[in-house]
């Protein structure tokens, strides 16, 4: 038997979908606000301190309102799943539009990503930290500091929506042009390429990616499981994302 709360939510949905009842809409917004806060809390831990909880929440609310307006229950998705995609997507769009990321950090990230791309294309394997630092002309300490500074750029979910329905994933790490992805991407081919790229990751990086994106654990939980510091988990995650982006950049001809 459905709980009383679920029965009430179902009634609110019926009133909103069938009758455009504004009171039902307001109650649904209030009910799902906790979903916005949960997502913001998770994303805030990985983003620059320049971005406040309230700023992220304001963008997340836009995503929630968009989800309530566009959700079609007949497409087979649970609303929470659909809304989560829209909320995270709206937050990421807000971050990009407000350009909270300093240009110097962006340049560092591009430089490191390019190093992984070119080295792993050359050697056809995962390269070591030492090989990357030699290529960049950095000391190891400087490299690890750069990884730390650019870490928040890499905490982007692999399942952001790229279409109006929210059923297909954004994979926004793969290209600077969201429009190109939306117009030309072959979704199944992309999934195959991404799967192979993840399989080639060093074991610890692969495990961190799996736990973070697929098991949806946070950094602290992963650090407890692997018995490593949170900063070390963050470093592993960031390097994994650089490798994936480099690998996927090489495969663009197979994606588009």
From TrEMBL:
GO terms for molecular function: DNA binding; DNA-directed RNA polymerase activity; sigma factor activity. One of its GO terms (biological process) is DNA-templated transcription initiation. Residues 218-244 form the RNA polymerase sigma-70 domain. PROSITE patterns: SIGMA70_2 (PS00716). Keywords: DNA-binding, Sigma factor, Transcription, Transcription regulation. InterPro entries: RNA_pol_sigma-70_dom, RNA_pol_sigma70, RNA_pol_sigma70_r2, RNA_pol_sigma70_r3, RNA_pol_sigma70_r4, RNA_pol_sigma_FliA_WhiG, RNA_pol_sigma_r2, RNA_pol_sigma_r3/r4-like. PANTHER family: RNA POLYMERASE SIGMA FACTOR FLIA (PTHR30385:SF7), SIGMA FACTOR F FLAGELLAR (PTHR30385). This is RNA polymerase subunit sigma.
